[in-house]
Design goal:
The protein is mostly helical and 81 residues long. The chain contains two helices and no strands.
Length: 81
């Protein structure tokens, strides 16, 4: 049976690979032979992407912070041993 860590790794690899592929596809829109766009449109595209990336990162930060506050522990795990 797949552990939570293994599931995270499998899904993260697949989803990040897909996201990178999609970002590369977005970069193809820069070809002026095929597309016409303004500097403002480009700025808005990248603002939206940056906002979503920051939101995703924030979700991880919140989850990690909650995990460290979840419980008090004595012993080797608490002391880094």
């Amino acid at each position: 049976m797949e552990t939570k860590s293994e599931k995270f790794q499998r899904l993260a690899e697949a989803r990040v690979t897909k996201a990178i592929s999609t970002l590369r596809s977005i970069s193809k829109l820069s070809n002026r032979n095929h597309y016409d766009y303004s500097e403002d449109e480009v700025r808005r595209v990248f603002q939206a992407l940056k906002k979503e990336l920051e939101s995703a990162r924030s979700s991880f930060d919140v989850a990690l912070n909650q995990e460290t506050k979840k419980r008090f522990r004595l012993g080797s795990k608490a002391n880094g041993k």
